[in-house]
Amino acid sequence: MISIKQTQDKQDSNSSNSSSNSSNSNSSSNSSNSSNSSRRRPRRIKQHQQGQQQQQLQQHQRQQQQQQQQQQQQEQQQHQQQHQQQQQQHQQHQQQQHQQHQQQHQQQQQQQQQQQQQQQHHQQQQDRVIWICCT
């Protein structure tokens, strides 16, 4: 009887030891898992933050490109406006020159007409003088 009890006691102690070992191993694995998970999370957060920063940088670059394009468009528009103004000034200058030329031509014609009228009048007077003398 004594020997049987001793063997049972040994078996009981072995089983309790094995169960405690298993619980210890489980707890250690759990703690290692939790530490691993706590280590992994910051990496994901850092990667996410870096991704956001890159997106913000890209947006900033896009905004700068858009601003540059707008500036270029404004400069082109200003250049076109200047070109149009120059063309308008050139047209106005041409029109003025043309009008002045026409006016000069009209004045010349008027002067010629006046001269012709004067000549005709003078001839008429000469004709009268000759006719009076002859009669």
Summarize the structure.
It contains one helix and no strands. The chain is mainly alpha-helical. The model has no long low-confidence stretch (mean pLDDT 76).
Structural class: mainly alpha
**Shape estimate:** rod-shaped
What is the count of β-strands? Answer: 0
Binned, the helix content reads: over 70%
Our measurement of the CA-to-CA distance between the termini, rounded to an integer number of angstroms, reads 198 Å
Q: Using only CA atoms, what is the Rg?
A: 58 Å
- The residue-averaged pLDDT reads 76
Please outline the major beta sheet. none
**Low-pLDDT stretches:** none
**What fraction of residues sit in β-strands?**
under 5%
* Helical segment count: 1
- H/E topology pattern: H
Describe the structure.
With 135 residues, this protein is an all-alpha fold. Helix content is 99%, strand content 0%. The protein has one helix spanning 2-134. The model has no long low-confidence stretch (mean pLDDT 76).
